[in-house]
Write a structure and sequence with these properties.
255 residues, mainly alpha, 10 helices, elongated
């Protein structure tokens, strides 16, 4: 039986083509994206670092890694949300649905593209932040796994917001609210002993909590068995959001 024309190309071919399309869309505006995703976390590092400077390196570690998560929230989650909201409003999703591609190849291509675009701001925040806070970095090879997993789980949340909201204004407002909530709940930028108990409980349901924990271990050390729990939860969040986005997208009844 001949293959269906809608899915005639292998998944990886679809993913690669869509990934290049996404990068091409941002060839003129990537500099402003880089600036936005870098400046906000650096200001957060400076502001929190002033108050935490006398609290010791442990607290400063939370300041650094918490703002790395903030960089991912602005650089990956918010931008993916904006992209999916825009594609829905202008009818681009209908256009892609008419092509012989799978919906999940489009979702993953957008997420991977924005991860790549957010990577320079993340690295800049890491280097400058460590310098400002006078922290010694102990980079672990698992960093090469942790960063993509953190970025893709947060990008998945952004995609879900993008396919759910009614218009770009609602999407931007909701994305900002989610960013502030995720950054504030749980031990993300603030040590757990300085947070109310209810924040710690709610933080267990936030991907940002596990992203910050994983980043602290592979950037500042030491790496413990808890890292595998963090990665497992983040992968579960990424898979769940991917499924929810695919379920929510109107794909004209295609797979």
């Amino acid at each position: 039986m001949p293959p269906s024309p809608r899915n005639s190309q292998p998944f990886l071919v679809q993913l690669g083509d869509l990934f290049l399309i996404e990068l091409t869309n941002w060839r003129w505006s990537w500099r402003s994206m880089l600036l936005t995703a870098t400046i906000t976390p650096l200001f957060g590092i400076i502001a929190l670092g002033i108050f935490a400077r006398d609290s010791g390196p442990s607290t400063l570690a939370y300041v650094l890694t918490g703002n790395l998560v903030l960089s991912l929230l602005f650089g990956a989650m918010d931008k993916v949300q904006s992209r999916f909201t825009y594609m829905r409003v202008v009818g681009a999703l209908d256009y892609f649905a008419a092509l012989p591609i799978q919906r999940y190849s489009l979702i993953q291509a957008v997420a991977v593209a924005f991860f790549l675009l957010s990577l320079p701001s993340l690295l800049a925040t890491l280097g400058v932040g460590a310098l400002l806070l006078n922290l010694s970095l102990h980079l672990h090879p698992l960093l090469l796994i942790v960063i993509p997993v953190c970025a893709l789980s947060l990008a998945g949340l952004g995609a879900f917001i993008g396919v759910t909201v009614r218009d770009p204004h609602e999407g931007g407002s909701l994305s900002l609210l989610v960013t502030l909530v995720l950054a504030g709940l749980g031990p993300v930028a603030v040590p757990p002993e300085r947070l109310p108990g209810i924040f710690l409980i709610l933080g267990r349901f936030s991907p940002a909590t596990y992203a910050a924990s994983a980043l602290r271990q592979v950037i500042l050390g030491p790496v413990t068995l808890h890292l595998w729990l963090d990665l497992g939860v983040l992968i579960a969040f990424a898979v769940a959001f991917l499924w929810l986005v695919g379920w929510k997208m109107d794909w004209r009844g295609t797979s």
